[in-house]
């Protein structure tokens, strides 16, 4: 995924909030490019990550996870399970980005501990595990506050941060404009994030609750685009079916 984004591809994904390997595999087979196991929100627990990663991989899609916090071991445990990338919520300064991103990589670039008998290193069978991890591990920093927008150029320039990813709910909420996605100041923040990513040679990403705003996001320059979650898609499908059945 890191190489595909670096090559300029636009990749669509979704979030997994049910903790369900079956939902992961099903959404992967639906055709998403990536799936992200969410540990910040939703009903999933760290102990359920592996099943979802295996489900996503069985469907042939990139498996990522979002940590609940920037605590170092939250990130390194996920990498040991073999996720291809990690997203950190609420990265609000260049210093915070640097501190978190260190956990993503082995030295000298980072401080990830070396233990090569885990799934991420193919249980010790990958002779190039360290080099491959450096090449493939994707770091995604969420921009979710005015402070983070003010620091986004520094965040995007941090080695190890490959994507600056807007969390629109948190960003608009912290700006006092909850879900006002056409608000002028919010739009200025969006433009600043995309520009910072481009200037740093990184990708910009965004979460969309539903697909209506995908054309706008692509026109804005986003290339890692999240669309809803297992929960939002199940609820949208269920509600549409019942509305049609009851004709309301
Ligand atoms: C948000 O909208 O705040 C999110 O974190 C979604 O990724
Ligand atoms: Mg958020």
Task: Characterise the protein shown here.
- With 248 residues, this protein is an alpha/beta fold.
- It has a single domain, classed as Phosphoenolpyruvate-binding domains (TIM Barrel, Alpha-Beta Barrel).
- The chain has 12 helices and 8 strands.
- Strands 1-2-3-4-5-6-7-8 form an 8-stranded parallel beta barrel, surrounded by 7 helices.
- Helix 11 links the parallel strand 7 (203-208) and strand 8.
- Helix 2 runs parallel beside helix 3 (49-58).
- The longest helix has 17 residues, at 230-246.
- The radius of gyration is 18 Å and the shape is globular.
- It starts with a helix and ends with a helix.
- Bound molecules: 3-hydroxypyruvic acid and magnesium ion.
- Magnesium ion binds next to helix 9.
- 3-hydroxypyruvic acid binds next to helix 9.
Descriptive terms for the model:
globular; alpha/beta; binds 3-hydroxypyruvic acid; 248 residues; TIM Barrel; single chain; binds magnesium ion; 12 helices
Short account of what is shown:
The chain has 248 residues and is an alpha/beta fold.
Query: Terminal Cα separation, in Å?
Result: 42 Å
Count all strands and give the number.
Answer: 8
Quick one: overall form?
globular
CATH superfamily: Phosphoenolpyruvate-binding domains
Largest sheet: 8 strands, parallel, barrel
How is this fold's topology laid out?
Layout: H1 2-6, E1 11-16, H2 21-30, E2 34-38, H3 49-58, E3 62-66, H4 72-80, E4 85-88, H5 94-101, H6 129-136, E5 138-143, H7 146-150, H8 152-157, E6 163-166, H9 168-174, H10 184-199, E7 203-208, H11 214-220, E8 224-229, H12 230-246
Parallel strand pairs: 1-2, 1-8, 2-3, 3-4, 4-5, 5-6, 6-7, 7-8
Helix pairs in contact: 2-3
Bound molecules: 3-hydroxypyruvic acid and magnesium ion.
């Amino acid at each position: 995924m890191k190489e595909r984004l670096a090559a300029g591809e636009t990749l669509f994904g979704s979030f997994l909030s049910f903790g369900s390997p079956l939902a992961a595999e099903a959404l992967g087979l639906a055709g998403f490019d990536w799936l992200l196991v969410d540990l910040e929100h939703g009903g999933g627990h760290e102990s359920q990550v592996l099943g979802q990663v295996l489900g996503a991989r069985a469907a042939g899609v990139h498996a990522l996870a979002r940590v609940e916090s920037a605590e170092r071991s939250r990130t390194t445990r996920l990498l040991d399970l073999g996720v291809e990338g990690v997203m950190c919520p609420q990265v609000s300064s260049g210093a915070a980005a640097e501190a978190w991103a260190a956990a993503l990589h082995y030295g000298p670039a980072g401080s990830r501990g070396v233990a090569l008998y885990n799934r991420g290193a193919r249980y010790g069978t990958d002779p190039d595990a360290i080099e491959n991890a450096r090449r493939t591990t994707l770091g995604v920093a969420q921009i979710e506050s005015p402070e983070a927008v003010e620091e986004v150029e520094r965040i995007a320039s941090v080695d190890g941060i490959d994507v600056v990813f807007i969390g629109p709910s948190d960003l608009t909420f912290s700006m006092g404009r909850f879900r006002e996605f056409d608000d002028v100041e919010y739009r200025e923040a969006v433009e600043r994030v995309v520009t910072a990513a481009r200037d740093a040679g990184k990708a910009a990403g965004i979460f969309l609750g539903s697909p209506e705003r995908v054309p706008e996001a692509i026109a804005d320059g986003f290339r890692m685009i999240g669309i809803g979650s297992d929960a939002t898609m199940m609820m949208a499908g269920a509600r549409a079916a019942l509305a049609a059945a009851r004709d309301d």
